[in-house]
Amino acid sequence: MKSFRWQFLPAIKSLTTAFLVCAGMLSTRSAAAQQVNVGGPFNTVGHGFYESIGTRWGARGPGWFFNFGGAPPPAFGGFDPNAGANVGGGFRAGNTSGFFNLNVGQGANSTMVSQTPSVTIPNGGNGYFIDGTFRPFVTSIIPVVGDQSDPSPLRERLRRLQEQQEASLTSPANAPAQAEVGGGGVARRSTAERGDLSVAEIKSAANAQGSSQDEELAAILEKARGAEEAGKAGVARIYYQMAARRATGEQQQKILAHLQTLPR
Fold first, then answer.
1. Maximum distance among all alpha carbons in the chain?
2. What is this structure's pTM?
3. Distance between CA atoms of 204 and 162, rounded to whole angstroms?
4. Cα–Cα distances in angstroms (integers) from residue 146 to residues 136, 156, 238, 259, in the given order
């Protein structure tokens, strides 16, 4: 019995070791699959060639001279002024002298650039990379996108004042006190007893709303006129379009007619 136990003990140890190795490989493979690295290579290849031949000469005498300049260096091909040949000569005869120079050159330039942006994303997730330039179109503090406009600080202030006024009109403190009805029961009360808005209060709220809208429209028109006087026709056109969307009736027609007179 003892010999049987010692004979099978190495086999059990081998099986245990193999099981642990397999489990480790599976866990490592599962852990490596939690993230994925994605790359997109961008390759750029360029080649440039140039030839340059130029002369420079001149002469000088008593009370006169003239010079003829050489050719300009090439703007492509990777021109190197020290890579060409420069030869020349001169002469002198009495008070008259002159010179002649010859510049010749030839060369080529090749480039190869490879870029590989990469992003690491979780398994089953999303990822992106972008290479671009964004230029927003902004006039003053109001970003303009297409034919729409974002809320301005003035508009936000007017909206808050309007909300505060409406809240004060509908608050329970302004409602009339509810009178108790005798006889041990509660009778059906009218709208005046329930604290509903009266006709006068509704008209007052409507007038306040109209007044805030008129103030907002007047502020936009003032900005439009200021931009027009400053010579900014594009900015003035944007403000006039904003005013036309808020105006009604004859005033809207006048704004649209004036908008057509602005230079494009």
1. 142
2. 0.29
3. 12
4. 11, 21, 10, 17
Q: Buried b vs exposed e over 229-264: b needs ≥16 C-beta within 10 Å?
A: eeeeeebbbbbbbbbbebbeeeeeeebeebbeeeee
119-140 confidence digits (pLDDT tens) = 888 877 788 777 777 776 666 5
Query: Cβ contacts of residue 10 below 8 Å, gap of 6+?
Result: none
Classified as helix, coil or strand, 79 is coil
Which amino acid makes up residue 50? Y
Q: What is the DSSP letter of 164?
A: H
Q: What are 263's two structure tokens? A: 């230079």
57, 68 in Cβ contact below 8 A?
A: yes
Number of residues in the chain: 264
Give the ranges where the chain is alpha helix by DSSP (H). 2-32, 153-169, 191-194, 199-229, 233-246, 249-261
